[in-house]
Design goal:
alpha/beta; six-stranded parallel sheet; 15 helices
């Protein structure tokens, strides 16, 4: 059985030859393995992160692919013009200002590209809600139907049967807006309550774009549609998620189900309530990373008992206490427990919490895979 087959059988709640092993190593480990400063990958695309990830997949041989993608090309409807300039450079970082020019004005953000860590935004696009947010809404959601998929199809070919190809999409919500609103998270909360009409417009524009984008992704035929909505219940309440994200989640999963493409939701942090909502109210196929305390609130055994007939569960070894700081024996013990808790009769993918750290020991990654292939045999 190939890695691709194994992953898809489990995601569709079937029982493959053994539990798929798919740790979340989408960013820092691929960058480190290149031996280059991280800014080479993130800023200069030398190589792009998805190509660096492919080398990790080849090296360790786990059942991955869902974590990385080149995505679809630029829409012909995109009216934005982007210019970047380096405003500071040291041995440890490169600070870049990204100018986005639109027919209705300019938005800009500052990003720090680190030598040994992923980039961070230190200034973001929306600095004044009433001035900047309407520009964002008007120009950052171009019609995706004209996007080409040449790079994605090449990626799919290179990946072959060693993993699953994915195209990803986000959900509207306050958690999404943390990436574009300048300042502290409180600004988003105040803006949400002070500008209900503007946030209503945001929800409608994003939801309409999601329907178009999902239909465009279906045309490209990925193996999996990844719904990436990090921190869904960290930056907003379940009630706000129901207002913004749930209608779009229902639509994505329905369109994908009709196209026979499985869907996987990634939402780090608290996710227990998300699992219940997804199992009872959507057509979602799988959910990860189902993090344990203190990062999350999930118990695999409990979730398997409640929702294992409706959702493939994917998780959930602690990325710092176990994968980074633990011994290989700790990894073995935690992986065996996860398989005991959620692996019965299939519908389970052994994974980690969100993003294994840069310095995760190789022996821990290899042990993680070994346990799935031996202890996780069906």
């Amino acid at each position: 059985m190939t890695s691709k087959e194994r992953f898809l059988i489990a995601l569709n709640r079937g029982r493959p030859d053994y539990v798929p092993a798919s740790p979340d190593v989408s960013n820092m480990i691929p960058c480190k393995l290149t031996g280059k400063p991280f800014w080479e990958i993130y800023l200069y695309k030398n190589p792009p992160i998805y190509k660096a990830y492919l080398e990790v997949l080849k090296k360790y041989g786990f059942d991955g692919g869902w974590e990385s993608t080149p995505g679809l090309g630029k829409s012909e409807d995109d009216k934005r013009k982007i210019r970047t300039e380096v405003i500071e450079k040291t041995n440890e970082k490169i600070v870049v200002r990204e100018h986005v020019y639109t027919p209705d004005g300019e938005l800009w953000q500052d990003l720090v590209y680190w030598r040994d860590n992923p980039p961070v935004e230190i200034r973001k696009y929306v600095k004044d809600t009433e001035r900047d947010f309407p520009v964002y809404l008007k120009y950052f959601f171009p019609d995706p139907m004209s996007c080409d998929d040449k790079e994605f199809q090449q990626w799919k070919h290179e990946l072959g049967y060693s993993g699953v190809s994915q195209l990803s999409i986000g959900l509207p919500g306050l958690n999404h807006l943390t990436a574009i609103f300048d300042g502290e998270q409180e600004q988003i909360i105040y803006a949400y309550y002070d500008n209900p009409a503007l946030f209503g417009e945001y929800k409608e524009i994003y939801h309409d774009w999601i329907i178009k984008m999902t239909n465009r992704m279906v045309q490209a035929r990925p193996d999996v549609i990844l719904i990436s909505s990090s921190g869904t219940l960290v930056f907003q309440t379940p009630e706000i998620f129901r207002e913004f994200g749930l209608p779009s989640l229902k639509k994505i999963t329905k369109i994908a189900k009709q196209a026979n493409i499985p869907t996987l939701l990634h939402s780090c942090g608290k996710e227990k309530e998300m699992a219940r909502i997804c199992a009872e109210e959507t057509e979602l196929d799988g959910i990860n990373p189902l993090e344990i305390s203190p990062m999350g609130d999930c118990d695999l055994k409990e979730l398997k008992q409640k929702y294992g007939d409706k959702l493939c569960l994917m998780g959930n070894l602690h990325t710092t206490d176990v994968m980074l700081r633990g011994s290989s024996e700790d990894v073995e013990k935690a992986a065996q427990k996860a398989i005991d808790d959620a692996g019965e009769n299939g519908g389970f993918i052994l994974s980690t919490g969100d993003q294994c750290p840069r310095d995760t020991p190789e022996e821990n990654i290899y042990k993680f895979i070994e346990v799935a292939r031996t202890y996780g045999k069906y």
